[in-house]
Amino acid sequence: MIFKFIYSTNMTVDQINEVKNILADLRQKLEIRYEHSSRKHNDAVEKMEVDRYLIIDVRQKAHYDGSKITFDKCINIPQSELKPGKLGYKFADCFHKDKQSFD
């Protein structure tokens, strides 16, 4: 057996609109809270992902010094220095001498 209930109310249009506004406000607050929570989680994930990379800027040193990325895992090896067959150990002086650069 299927039961259907029909509720009859004596709500005015203003009351119905007020309920709609309250529901819209609650929906917006929930979306903001979800976005904030999601963003915090994504920021942590992005931070973990970024820490796994070494950024090699291949612009000329003058351009690099003028507008370099402020990230401790960003180094400058000008494109003119990169040649086929040149081994990575030749660029050791380009790396920062701190432990974090070699992690």
From TrEMBL:
Superkingdom classification of source: Eukaryota
Name assigned to this protein: Rhodanese domain-containing protein
